[in-house]
From TrEMBL:
Residues 10-20 have a biased composition (Basic and acidic residues). The keyword Transferase does not apply. GO terms for cellular component: cytosol. This is Xanthoxin dehydrogenase. Residues 1-20 are annotated as: Disordered. The keyword Oxidoreductase applies. InterPro entries: ABA2-like, NAD(P)-bd_dom_sf, SDR_fam. Gene3D superfamilies: NAD(P)-binding Rossmann-like Domain. It comes from Canavalia gladiata. Belongs to the short-chain dehydrogenases/reductases (SDR) family. GO terms for molecular function: xanthoxin dehydrogenase (NAD+) activity. The lineage of its organism: Eukaryota, Viridiplantae, Streptophyta, Embryophyta, Tracheophyta.
């Protein structure tokens, strides 16, 4: 049914995990407490929209699904009836998500470093082996890298790491999802980009370049796979205060105050005031693109930014 790929030994798989993938556990707990409140609020306000499952019977693979935006996508997909495989390097956090959902039958986890093609290929095969097919892949795993604003001081090793995860990781997902979806003549490939894919000057060079690359890949792969009935899109959110936002800081500086500072910075520079972008908002955009509601949408970059990229921030006429 599909090509067999030699399985890597578990210890080799874990050794391949790069240091920059690891998030401070205390920050994760702090963010999770805040996120759970948002999940509860949004769940009560969107009961009507969730009453009809939009992914019933679908099989999805979500990379980087152990926390942050990825976790919200997993939770929302589960609510809408999908069977999900979480592929992440954060084993403990991934297993915690499954435990909190209380559904080990329809939600599975496996260790996966998206920079390693065999890992991603194995994740796709794992999802097919567990659930019979693959309808949706969400290439969510990514890092921001160090916030260096002086090109003369950019560490090229760090630059390569960002591109390896943010671009090669996405391409690996596209390539191996296509391997399953082309014979099926259907499927939805969704990747996470950023508002940095639409503007310059709002992120580090490596991060901005990598997210522009995600949009370029999305359009080109959509052009190729359209004849097979496969839709390829990406989502570009505005800044969100997740653990990723402070991951570049030394461990002792990844505090709740640092998170609050980032949250205030994002809020003060947002175009849409009075509303804070959450991981659930991004998950809803991904759900739309994954569902049949978006059955004729492909090659699109869905920007979820409250109008931020529509504004000329150098002029600020209306501020």
């Amino acid at each position: 049914m599909h090509a067999k790929v030699p399985l890597m030994k578990e210890n080799q798989r874990k050794k391949a995990t790069a240091e920059h993938h690891t998030f401070d556990k205390e920050i994760y707990k702090q963010v999770t407490r805040k996120t759970e409140k948002v999940h509860t609020t949004m769940s009560s306000s969107s009961t009507a929209s969730n009453s009809i499952p939009r992914l019933l019977g679908k099989v999805a693979l979500v990379t980087g699904g152990a926390n942050g935006i990825g976790e919200s996508i997993v939770r929302l997909f589960h609510t809408h009836g999908a069977k999900i495989c979480i592929a992440d390097v954060q084993d403990n956090l991934g297993k915690q998500v499954i435990e909190s959902l209380g559904d080990e039958t329809n939600v599975q986890f496996l260790h996966c470093d998206v920079t390693i093609e065999d890992d991603v290929s194995h994740a796709v095969d794992f999802a097919v082996a567990k659930f019979g097919t693959l309808d949706i892949i969400v290439n969510n795993a990514g890092i921001s890298g160090s916030p260096c604003s002086d090109i003369r001081n950019v560490d090229l090793t760090e630059f390569d790491k960002v591109f390896s995860i943010n671009v090669k990781g996405v391409f690996h997902g596209m390539k191996h999802a296509a391997r399953i979806m082309i014979p099926n003549k259907k499927g939805s490939i969704i990747s996470l980009a950023s508002v940095a894919s639409a503007l310059g000057g709002i992120g580090p060079h490596a991060y901005t370049g990598s997210k522009h690359a995600v949009v370029g890949l999305t359009k080109n792969v959509a052009a190729e796979l359209g004849k097979h009935g496969i839709r390829v899109n990406c989502v570009s959110p505005y800044g969100i205060a997740t653990a990723l936002a402070v991951a570049h800081l030394p461990e002792d500086e990844r505090t709740e105050d640092a998170m609050a500072g980032f949250r205030n910075f994002v809020a003060n520079n947002a175009n849409l005031q009075g509303v804070e972008l959450t991981t659930d908002d991004v998950a809803n955009a991904v759900l739309f693109l994954a569902s049949d509601d978006a059955r004729y949408i492909s090659g699109d970059n869905l920007i979820v930014d409250g109008g931020f990229t529509s504004v000329n921030h150098s002029l600020r006429v209306f501020r």
